[in-house]
Specification:
Length: 265
């Protein structure tokens, strides 16, 4: 299904150039405690399975606004068409949101049109986003929470997503970056940091997701730290224009063996 792009947000969004062509892949987030898929994250892909970087390279100041809007609509349309029965996680670009209430209109209309309860949406602050206007970002998050969405701080522990941003934004969800997870079983410093962040999030009442879990040994470290929600190749690779099912993930059937879903990682 080809999304017909129509912009009915604020004037700045209306004046934006059309976004580059793209589609979505979906990667599940697994709940280790209940052994089920908790949510699916929508990840940008090119129409020919090109990686996200190939699409994002075509995004600039003139089409950033339309691209952000189109990503939300595309993710909702594809996921619901494929029978989504979990939460849906969508990346958003804070610098592409001028007025939160106006810029969320397309998202709300898409959710209503596709029969998706808006309370099942989580918006992730896009990785690597340097956002100097913290008051505006807080305003965006306040509006999103008013709408019933959850907000996640992505790539925590690297780049811009540090403790100061955690304190300032107080997100519902923190996603621990792959850089801290990689080879953590062989690195006592990483294990200590992971355990410390897990304890911090428990104290704050913030849900913690470990991203990029690729091996059974990394998973063991994550479990030892008491982290309940995980995402990574150990469970499933992003699946191109489809949702990975629980039946495809051996861990959910009692095995720790990895499974690679179709599509580009």
């Amino acid at each position: 299904m080809q999304t017909v792009f129509k912009m009915r947000g604020c004037r700045a969004c209306q004046d934006a150039l059309p976004p580059p062509e793209f589609t979505m892949a979906f990667q599940p987030v697994v709940d280790l405690s209940l052994r089920r898929i908790d949510s699916h994250e929508a990840l940008v892909r090119g129409l020919n399975r090109d990686p996200a970087q190939a699409v994002l390279a075509k995004v600039n100041s003139e089409n950033r606004y339309s691209f952000d809007q189109a990503c939300r609509v595309k993710a909702i349309e594809l996921a619901t068409r494929m029978g989504l029965d979990t939460r849906l996680n969508i990346n958003f670009i804070p610098n592409a949101v001028y007025e939160p209430r106006a810029c969320i209109r397309e998202t709300l209309e898409a959710a209503a049109r596709c029969g998706l309860d808006k309370s099942r949406l989580t918006f992730e602050i896009v990785e690597g986003e340097d956002f100097a206007d913290m008051p505006h970002l807080k305003h965006i998050m306040a509006e999103y929470r008013r709408q019933g969405f959850l907000v996640a701080l992505d790539d925590f522990g690297t780049g811009y997503s540090g403790l100061s941003r955690l304190a300032a934004l107080q997100p519902d969800i923190v996603k621990l970056d792959r850089a801290l997870i990689e080879n953590c079983d062989a690195d006592p410093v990483k294990r200590t940091i992971i355990a410390g962040i897990a304890a911090l999030c428990r104290s704050l009442g913030t849900r913690l997701v470990a991203e990029g879990v690729e091996t059974a040994r990394e998973l063991a470290v994550v479990q030892d730290a008491g982290i309940r929600f995980v995402q990574g190749f150990h469970f499933a690779r992003p699946a191109f224009e489809r949702l990975v099912t629980a039946a495809e993930i051996p861990f959910l059937a009692g095995s720790l063996a990895p499974l690679e879903a179709e599509g580009v990682g």
